[in-house]
Amino acid sequence: MSNLYRPDMTNAGLGFSLPSVAIDERGEAQAIELVGERALTIYVDKQEIVTLMTIGAHPELLTLGYLKNQGFFDDIADIKVVQVDWETEAVAVVTRQGGSDFSERMAQRTVTTGCGQGTVFGRLMEKLKQIRVPDVSIKQSMLYAMLDALKNYNEVYKKAGAVHGCALCTGEQIDFFVEDVGRHNAVDAIAGLMWLNDLSGADKIFYTTGRLTSEMVIKVTQMGIPILLSRSGATQMGLEMARQAGVTMISRAKGKHFLVLNGSEHIEFDAIPERRRSFEEG
């Protein structure tokens, strides 16, 4: 990994949460944690691209992942500098060629569903039709082990709630876990990590606490990850896009329960829970 190209980047991550006080149902004061939320505007060669709402844990990775997932850049070597300045709530991206003009691309965009409004650019949709993720199988027992391991994460959610978490996993191993106010921000941070370290998604599993929308499937497909699961539900368009790209989609994954919406042929059911006996059965 040491020989990989890396842009000149700041390390401007912020603390996850802030202390506050609330009054509970008994009229008593309780110390709580509130998620810190900041605006971060991305500029590329001084051209304003987008403003994201984020807790600011990994702003440089978020910026890289956003630019990669939205199709602005394919080669990380095109990016020279990623500099975050929280005083101005901005991140300045400097490219090697300089003077980039994204006016045409910015004109072709569609607002997508999701916390904080993500954007998917028009030409990206055509590109996605050409992508097919690898056929990869997963054991039910390994899925359960991974979900069990994830219980040790969700640090911000446990303290303050109001965030989504995403994880990049290899088997039952949790490689990287990110929380942010918008699930697409957390996905972009992971995409940035993968891009920065030239990681293949072919053997990875992507976990999210958020809904499995078209935006989520689009980003996971671009990352080349074949298995996507969530403790939440899915949208119809998300499922359609998963079928198109061959993504194994698993929803409502919590405890021993899950629903495979696409790719059930890739699941090895080796740990089927015992069926609960009904009251009538005694």
UniProtKB/TrEMBL annotation:
The UniProt record lists the keyword Cytoplasm:
yes
Q: Name one GO molecular function term.
A: sulfur carrier activity
Q: Indicate yes or no for the key word Cytoplasm.
A: yes
Q: What InterPro entries is this protein classified in? A: Cytidine_deaminase-like, FdhD
Keywords per UniProt: Cytoplasm, Molybdenum cofactor biosynthesis
| A Pfam family | FdhD-NarQ
Domain of life per record:
Bacteria
The annotated active site, in chain numbering, is C115
**Principal subcellular localization:** cytoplasm
Q: Where in the cell is it found?
A: Cytoplasm
Q: Which residues form the signal peptide?
A: none
Q: Name one GO cellular component term.
A: cytoplasm
What does the record list as GO biological process? Mo-molybdopterin cofactor biosynthetic process
Q: What family does the entry list?
A: Belongs to the FdhD family.
Q: Which PANTHER family match?
A: FORMATE DEHYDROGENASE (PTHR30592), SULFUR CARRIER PROTEIN FDHD (PTHR30592:SF4)
Q: What does this protein do?
A: Required for formate dehydrogenase (FDH) activity. Acts as a sulfur carrier protein that transfers sulfur from IscS to the molybdenum cofactor prior to its insertion into FDH.
- Name of this chain's protein: Sulfur carrier protein FdhD
The protein's gene is named fdhD
